[in-house]
Amino acid sequence: MGHLQPRTAVPSSKEDSPPNLDADVIVLGAGISGLATAAELVKQGNKVIVLEARDRTGGRIDSRAIGPQDDKAVRVDMGASFVHGKYDNPIYDLTQELGITVHYTSPEGEIRILDADGQMGEDLANRLGFNVSHTFFDASRSFAQDHDPAPTDSLASYVFAKNSPLFDGLDQETERHENDPAASKPPNARWKAKALGRSFSGWTGADLEDVALRWWGFERDTIGPDGMVTSGRYHEVVDHLAGVVTSDVGQGEIRLQERVNRVRWNSSEDVVTVSTSPVDGGHSQTGSRDYLASNVICTLPLGVLQRQSPVFEPRLPPRKQRAIRSLGYGLLSKIAIRYDKAWWKESDKTSRQVDISYWLLVHI
Ligand SMILES: Cc1cc2nc3c(=O)[nH]c(=O)nc-3n(C[C@H](O)[C@H](O)[C@H](O)COP(=O)(O)OP(=O)(O)OC[C@H]3O[C@@H](n4cnc5c(N)ncnc54)[C@H](O)[C@@H]3O)c2cc1C
Q1: What are the backbone angles phi and psi of residue 172, rounded to the nearest 5°?
Q2: Ligand 1 pocket test target in 27, 35, 60, 81 with most atoms within 8 Å of CB
Q3: Is 203 in the pocket of ligand 1 (CB under 6 A)?
Q4: Among 12, 30, 201, 348, which residue's beta carbon has the most beta carbons within 10 A?
Q5: Which one, of 118, 119, 110, 206, lies nearest residue 156 by Cα?
């Protein structure tokens, strides 16, 4: 919280804390942001308490076992599964330290697309796959950075424009497709490209009409390819960080099932009081508890700050309130379906090492 000025800096050890405080720093939220922050502070000798409303750590990182809970259980990541950028990325470094394989698909990897006619011909599938990925990850990003689009221009306005690279080479493909007596007539390839392009709202987390073209590509602060963590193992990164927080050497504590309702700063004493209520089965229970600390770091998601925010006393500075109000966010959910047998043709290419098939359901 930027407006909370610590007495000096963050105290360097527990001896520096006034005796009646519960912690040097209270961290709100035990997602990866909160745990990474807390782990770093604990390593520097601070006494830290992490307060989390759910009955588990990890927040939007959520690895689970699905199917029969025996040795046939399949582990899946219902939250994050990709590591974006390989270089100078602390998450990638942690996966390597923990022995978690991150899988990369090669650009030449096979692309299979099934539509109402069954499996789409290889040429068309590869062309569509290339066009979609090139349009989103290269062409639109270069365009955004080179052309300074208006703030109101959406990503959709570029991706679905008549001359978009999404449709490159598709007229020939459409022709070839339509000359194939075994293939059905429309929807044609341009239409299918559009449908596949729409599926990228799963990547952006919002409809492409709601994503600003102007900033597309600026969100990255890592470089290198995106890879997928071995299915169901993302939580090991979270567990590792939680382990650092609560390890014997440090002075950290993670308190689950405690919803933060109020954060109050007493400026004369320079102490922050964080009030929580117990949570059971997702519902707040009666009773409350106060924690006292010199500093609070808030890692609660934007959606919570917009719709169910703890009360901040004094109120957050106008600049922060404006930022919270004016930023948007999307909704992203995953559905995992387990089959007894892989009915789709499995890849024989060693370059495609992803150990779970990812499907995109597209409205066709
Ligand atoms: C389905 C899905 C797929 C995704 N895929 C990817 C991906 O492949 N790669 C990628 O990099 N990112 C992905 N993301 C985004 C990524 O998961 C998040 O950016 C990241 O996990 C956010 O971490 P965080 O700690 O900032 O927030 P969160 O994980 O949301 O943690 C915040 C914590 O605060 C807690 N909390 C909320 N309110 C209170 C309160 N009042 N009191 C106490 N605690 C509270 C919450 O329970 C939560 O545990 C995906 C997200 C989703 C939903």
Answers
A1: -65, -40
A2: 60
A3: no
A4: 30
A5: 206
Structure-token match 């449709």, residue found: 167
What's the CA-to-centroid distance between 275 and ligand 1, angstroms?
22
Q: What is the pLDDT along the chain (364 residues), one digit of tens a residue?
A: 433 333 344 544 545 555 589 999 999 999 999 999 999 999 999 999 999 999 999 999 999 988 777 777 788 999 999 999 999 999 999 999 999 999 886 655 567 777 777 778 888 888 888 999 899 989 999 999 999 999 999 999 999 999 999 999 987 655 555 566 555 555 678 888 998 898 888 888 888 999 999 989 887 778 888 888 988 999 999 999 999 999 987 799 999 999 999 999 999 999 999 999 999 887 888 889 999 999 999 999 999 999 999 999 999 999 999 999 998 888 888 888 877 776 665 554 433 333 444 455 444 3
Would you state the structure tokens that stand for residue 150, as one six-digit string?
């208006």
**Looking at ligand 1, which atom is closest to the CA of residue 260?**
42
Give the rounded distance of the alpha carbon of 179 from its chain centre: 43
Distance 30 CA to ligand 1 centre (A): 9
32 C-beta closer than 6 A to ligand 1: yes
Q: How far is the CA of 302 from the centre of ligand 1 (A)?
A: 10
The DSSP 8-state label assigned to residue 210 in this structure reads: G
Nearest residue by C-alpha to atom 19 in ligand 1? 60
Q: How far is the CA of 79 from the centre of ligand 1 (A)?
A: 8
Rounded CA separation 352/344 (Å): 15
For ligand 1, say whether the CB of 28 is within 6 Å of any of its atoms. yes
Ligand 1 contacts CB of residue 11 (under 6 A)? no
pTM: 0.86
How far is Cα 134 from Cα 136, in angstroms, rounded to an integer?
A: 6
Element (H, E) at 142: helix 140-147
CA distance 238 to 234: 7
Q: What is the DSSP letter of 347?
A: P
Could you tell me if the CB of 52 is within 6 A of ligand 1?
Answer: yes
